[in-house]
Structure to design on (103 residues):
């Protein structure tokens, strides 16, 4: 159990509320949990608003995503998603935000 109470809280949140997924299903097949951050992405062009339904944003524990990056594949149920971009918004660097697209 980590000594840092903030890390324990983040790990507990993923354990209780995270969606079960497999990172790199055709390779290491690491079981992970994801927290959706936005279902869809919107782009505004003047008065027109475009919804990109194939884009999905998820948070993952940084320790679970260590060694992976752009191009990593996630299997969420029967759906496969490819990581387009990852970024760390968490000041303590415990979580990584994944921008994914359906494959």
């Amino acid at each position: 159990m980590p000594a840092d109470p903030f890390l324990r809280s983040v790990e507990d949140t993923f354990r209780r509320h995270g969606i079960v997924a497999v990172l790199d299903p055709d390779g290491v097949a690491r079981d992970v949990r994801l927290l959706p951050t936005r279902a869809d992405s919107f782009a505004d062009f003047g008065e027109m608003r475009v919804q990109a339904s194939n884009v999905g944003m998820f948070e993952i524990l940084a320790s679970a995503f260590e060694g992976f990056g752009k191009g990593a594949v996630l299997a969420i149920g029967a759906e496969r998603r490819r990581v387009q971009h990852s970024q760390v918004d968490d000041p303590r660097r415990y979580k990584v935000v994944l921008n994914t697209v359906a494959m």
The radius of gyration is 15 Å. Residues 43 and 50 are 5 Å apart (CA to CA). The first strand starts at residue 19 and ends at 23. The longest helix spans residues 5-17.
